[in-house]
Design a protein that fits this description.
The protein is α/β, with parallel strands linked by helices. The chain has 16 helices and 20 strands. This is Glutamine-dependent NAD(+) synthetase.
Length: about 550
């Protein structure tokens, strides 16, 4: 009977669809584990295809490509004597169906295949669309040791783990693709501890790391002993291959010989900021943009977007453009320049006054007899969008939009204007969180960030009243409630799905709540056309929250 087991945990950053590149990462991690004397290496969920692969797996050519890659991995790993086995995760077809699967590959041979039983179909997950649920899984017999290999959602409820325990599993090895949400790391730890204490078996939880469109996978893989104590921990927001060595005691129970100290996983604003940085970095790099271009207004949203971009990509890949109009204040021009100096990017200025005059002249006959209104304000925003997209087309830099969740909730943004761009790093951040992050970043330099130490956002940008500066003396609060009030109402409506009556009962003015509800409902058509952005909250706009644009139900009574 084998009484020692060396398990490597491979927390990798794959690219969805890059099967060849992902295979190289898989083999490199395997070689690392082999050099450290591993018996087996555990990967995160669907590491070969990248997660989530969505409708790619419905292409027969993609599935063939995966099979060819698995055959190549078998050949390469089988050529090294006494190398570790792989728990390789990939979409896989067997018994006439397509599954989210894990393959035990040992000595270059596929020994066992297991499929995910519990396919999630909520929030950002839509696996029932593309995969068939596997049967309740049996244990995996590995060199005389019975392993339970539930996949991600299989451990979020007790049934699969309980079944594997009754089948004689000795250790649970769990591949995961669990994206970041604020404060979710503690939830994962508690959930896995619950499963461990229910079955009395050790469990290793291997999570993906990296950005994939709206989703950011934050890593933070870990393992627990059978009594729920921490055995091994990997860092958040970084790739790692971590060894853990296990022994069987006299009662046949496995425990970790070399328990590692808890790896630093950032919390609170630190975790949110690092999620923004990783999400933007991977979106830009994986889509092969040379950098980003940002319209700098002198306001807080563009300043924070610029700071995140510099931390993600480096100052040399961030192009800042100030586009003043006759309504742009001297303070805003100065603040934008100071912010650019702090970030060491430089900044250029392109005045939109000529564009405003040209559009005014062109549209005068069509607008005859009509007074100026929000139409002219929107033309300013759209003129800026044209300039940024022109720079993007000419030089290849992606336009980074700067709107936040508060604005997108109530439609306080201009289609084809300030909403124009390829990615929105602040899309799931309420305005009050934007303020908090600016203050936090001025006092911290997060791990792995490429921007300068110290203050990067001028204090006046944080303290001055927010304004779109599209007309004289304009302030956001001319049109909206104060942001602390607005954000609490929005949080209750969006994340809490609470009614007007319930929100009023929590202490808010009924007239304001009704106004916010109407704005939220009416802005759905704008949000449907917005660029993707980093998911932070449990109810991000897009895949998390899907409402019809044409909608006769307003729910303004209860």
């Amino acid at each position: 009977m084998k009484n020692k087991l060396a398990i490597a945990i491979a927390q990798l950053n794959p690219i969805v669809g890059d099967v060849a590149g992902n295979a190289e990462k898989i083999v490199a991690a395997w070689e690392n584990a082999a050099d450290q004397g591993a018996d087996i290496i555990l990967y995160s969920e669907l590491v070969l295809s990248g997660y989530p692969p969505e409708d790619l797996v419905m292409k027969p050519s993609f599935m063939r490509h995966l099979r060819d890659a698995v055959a190549d991995i078998c050949q390469r790993t089988g050529a090294r004597k006494n190398g570790p086995a792989l728990l390789l995760t990939t979409p896989w077809e067997f018994n006439g169906a397509r599954h989210n699967a894990v393959l035990l590959i040992d000595g270059g041979t596929i020994e066992t295949v297991r499929a995910k039983n519990d396919l999630p179909n909520y929030g950002v997950f839509d696996e029932k669309r593309v995969f068939t649920a596997g049967p309740m899984p049996d244990v995996v017999d590995f060199r005389g040791i019975k392993l339970g290999v539930p996949i991600c959602e299989d451990v979020w409820t007790p049934k699969v783990v309980a079944h594997l325990a009754t089948r004689g599993a000795e250790i649970m090895l769990v591949p995961n693709g669990s994206p970041f949400e604020a404060d979710k790391d503690g939830l994962r730890r508690q959930l896995i501890r619950d499963r461990v204490l229910e079955c009395g078996l050790p469990m290793i939880y291997c999570n993906e790391v990296g950005g994939q469109d709206e989703l950011v996978f934050d890593g933070g893989s870990f393992g627990l002993n059978g009594d729920g104590t921490l055995a091994v921990a990997l860092p958040g927001f970084a790739e790692a291959v971590q060894m853990s060595r296990w022994s069987r005691d006299g009662d046949g129970k496995w425990y970790c010989d070399d328990a590692t100290p808890d790896a630093r996983y950032p919390g609170g604003l630190d975790a949110i900021y690092q999620t923004l940085v990783l999400g933007l970095r991977d979106y830009v790099n994986k889509n092969r943009f040379p950098g980003v271009v940002i319209g700098m207004s002198g306001g807080i949203d563009s300043a924070l977007s610029a700071a995140v971009a510099v931390d993600a990509l480096g100052a040399e890949r961030v192009r800042l453009v100030m586009m003043p109009s006759p309504y742009t204040s001297a303070d805003s021009l100065e603040d934008a320049q100071i912010c650019a100096d702090m970030l060491k990017t430089g900044i250029e200025s392109i005045n939109i006054g000529l564009a405003m005059e040209a559009f005014g002249t062109m549209l005068a006959p069509a607008f005859a007899g009509r007074n100026p209104d929000i139409t002219e304000e929107n033309i300013q925003a759209r003129s800026r969008g044209i300039i940024l997209m022109g720079i993007s087309n000419k030089f290849g830099h992606m336009v980074l939009t700067t709107g936040n969740k508060s604005e997108m909730s109530v439609g306080y943004a201009t289609l084809y204007g300030d909403m124009c761009g390829g990615y929105s790093v602040l899309k799931d951040l309420y305005k009050t969180t934007v303020f908090a992050l600016c203050t936090w970043r001025n006092g911290h330099h997060p791990d792995g960030c490429l921007g300068p130490d110290g203050m990067v956002i001028p204090q006046r940008i944080i303290t001055k009243p927010p304004s779109a500066e599209l007309r004289p003396d304009q302030k956001d609060e001319d049109s909206l409630p104060p942001y602390d009030v607005l954000d609490d109402i929005l949080h209750q409506m969006i994340e809490g799905e609470r009614s007007v009556t319930e929100i009023v009962a929590s202490g808010h003015d009924e007239e304001i709540v009704r106004k916010v509800w109407r704005l939220l409902d009416r802005a759905e058509y704008k949000r449907r056309q917005a660029p993707p952005g980093v998911k932070i909250t449990p109810r991000a706009f897009g895949r998390d929250r899907r409402y019809p644009i044409t909608n006769g139900f307003t729910n303004l009574v209860t």
